[in-house]
Amino acid sequence: MPQSPTVGTQEEDTGATPLGAEPASIAWELTTLRLGPGHVALVQSLGEPAARLACLVLYSGAEPGQRHLLRDGRLRLGRAPDCELLLDSPGISRRHAELLVAGDTVHLRDLGSVNGTHVNERRVQEQVLLHDGDLVRLGDVLLKFYPRHSLDALLHDHFYRMATVDALTEVYTRRYVLDALAREVRRAQRSGSPLAVACVDLDHFKVVNDRWGHDAGDQVLRQSASTLRAALRGSDILGRTGGEEFLVVLPDTPLSEALMLAERLRAALARHTLTLRGPDGDELPHQQTASIGVATLTPETSGVRELLAQADARLYAAKHAGRNRVSG
Hints:
The chain has 328 residues and is an alpha+beta fold. The protein is built from seven helices and 18 strands.
């Protein structure tokens, strides 16, 4: 049985058959590629090529599949809070490497890192131009470069979204938001920057399911999540942690600012009239409120578990005080 052709690098000639040529030892059978409606919808959901950006896709660590979009300009990679691409790993220097981005033209250079910057396992000594599919290793972190026209990068993004976004509410999953909180706690402890969290629980949600059915409950969850998301800042991270429970991670946010933001979330929900569709197709107006508990990271806070316990205790204080309020 003939072996599959291999692809060589520019430095070596492996004898591989040029692209488009047919080796005499292999008889090719032409077949028709059939795409079902699901495949067509997937490709259409990936967006217009003109709106895309070059990117680095993370291939290692806690978030494999995460895509870092590369906007034009100078982008630093490292553990320092001021890096444009923050990579939280012990093997990464504070300011490890730098990208110079101009559309699909992306150059990479090392910034004197301890563990080095590698492209396709060759250590970078001078500035190098990245090509489609190049493997970039910074210390123990592995990424892959894709230009804006790469369908592979968009497929990565699609599957990453399926794994990290809650299908019902379209906010992040419990696992993702807790992982994000752990990263933000480590960053805040290193840099001394403030960090807050808000636990949000929809009031009397069980009544909706009991009175109008689970479809109506799903509508409340979807619309409430959309309302919360619209009231947040771009840097905030919203995830669904339970049936009707949400967690908001608020980086670089002191307590006073976190309480104001939590009040904004509470008010946005309270003043928004949801329109539900009942089992018989009737439209049902519904006012949904929420109780919110806020906590901030302090030097005495041991970590994620204690921070969440403080926010959860304040959430229950808000509920016991009459619901539809913020406690912090």
